[in-house]
Structure formats: structure tokens, C-alpha cells
Design a protein that fits this description.
Length: 303
Amino acid sequence: MTASNPDTIIELKSVTKRFGSTTVLSNISWNVLQGHIVGLLGLNGSGKTTLLRLLMGIVRPSDGTVAVAHRDLSTQSPAIRAVVGYVAEHSNIPRAFTPDRLERVGRRVFPLWDAGQYEASLQRFHIARNKPIYVMSQGQRTLTAVAFALAHHAEILLLDEPTNGLDPLIRREFLANLIEEAYDQHRTVILSSHHLEEISYVAQDVAVLHGGKVVATGALDDLLQQDHLVTLRTKSGVGDLNTLPGVGTIFRTDQQVTMYIHHFDTYAQEIADRLREWHVTEWTHHPVSLEQLFQERVGDHVG
């Protein structure tokens, strides 16, 4: 199975994942471009971790097809695991292991193991080689797993909430190094995080999961430009705002109304004409923030 676009390194077509009678992922079609950092957003229970585990080959889709690094998940799962680095939210490294012992495993399993890269990462993250996993903090465990993934030259990094447990300075350093690694090594990174400011900082593309479905995906800059907030003064005689094209959530106060408009450029002229008919002459609009886009897509109101 090869991707329809040669720049696509991950391709899902009509993927559904069920556990018993529970559908966790529903009819997902999604592409990831090689060398991009992708932010994966969603509320708890939206299916983010299941999606990452599926891309790693830990679980299989109930329906649909998955291609990772131009390999078919259904027939080439071992080959996929050799080129994908998966860092779980809660470290799956054996608790008695030290980074030294973990390196011995890496040398045996991965032909392209890079001892210099591993050592550099441990030093950068301030991880002692002889420190057992069970005495490490959650953040240190995650950084050890990241160092391991980088050292076997994974083409794709799947990171599930990697900055949980990191102090602010280490978090900032980690994110800066992640960007550097992605660009210098042309690695593809999927970063699942509930920290929207982190996604805004590192990601070129985003995907929003809600109820097991991808409800928004694309280049981050494009997504933030396509939707706008429109604000106008409240006055008598204004028509039914819910009939405006592209309208989403409407926020009202005593003095003004703010509307979330999907695909603003598509509907801007029609909205202007309708407001003019209602004798609304003063109104403003501006692109949404990532927080506003996320909350609109998952059904929560922006504060």
C-alpha cells in the first residue's frame, strides 16, 4: 500500500476502531506530510491515545486501511515499528532499567542505533545513565523514552502528552529541541497535548479529534485564518443571527454580540449584505485563536 501523495508519510482511509461494542475511532480519513510537526488535540476520551497506538501497530483497525512510512499496517507491522518511535504518556520502560541498560537493548534491536545521539540527548535532558526508571520523576521517564526514540533514528515520532511532569524551563528546552530535530533530521512528529500554547509554538499542522472523529485538520495558519469572530453592537431590529451563513456559537452581552463564523472569506460578502439590510453599519471581525477554534469544534463555549 502506497500513499496517493509521495509527500504523505501517514495515510488513514475510512479507519474505524472498536473495542467490543464501543467505537473509539469512527471512519477517520487523515493524511500527515513527511517532515511536519502535527499537533493532535482532543478532550480526554476523544481517541487520541488509541490513534497513536494504532499508528504504532500496537492495535489494529477494525475497518479501513493504514499506511505508515509507505508500509501497509496490516502486512508490515514489524517494519513499521522499526521506523516509528512511540513515547507513551506513562512510560512503558521496565521500572528496573537504567538508561545504560536501555541502550544495550537499543544496540541489539536497532541496526541504526546512534550512541552519540543517545548520549547527547541524555546530557541535554540531564538524565543520569545509572539512574533506575523507578526512582525517576514522570518527566524524566518521558525524556528517557524520547532519547531512546531519537537514538534509533525513527522517521516518525509519536508523542503522547510528552511534557506532562516537566518543569517550565525543561519543557521549553524540550520543545525547542523537538523543532530542531524535526527540521534537521526531516522527522515527522505527531504531538498529542492538551497544552494549546505548546501546539501553537511547535506545530505546522493540527488535527482535532472529538467523539472518535477528526473534526478539523489542516495547516495551523490556514485553519486560524479561515474562521473569524464577528462582533457588532446590540440594537433593536437586528434579524435572526442564526440564519447567517457559516454562523457557529453566538456570544451575547448587554452591549454587543460576537459570532463564530466558519469559513469567513466564503461568506463575508453575504454577511455584510445581510447586516446592511438590518442597518448594522458598525461591525468588526478578526481571525480566531487556536483555543477558540478548538472549543468551537469540540462543542464547548469560548469564555
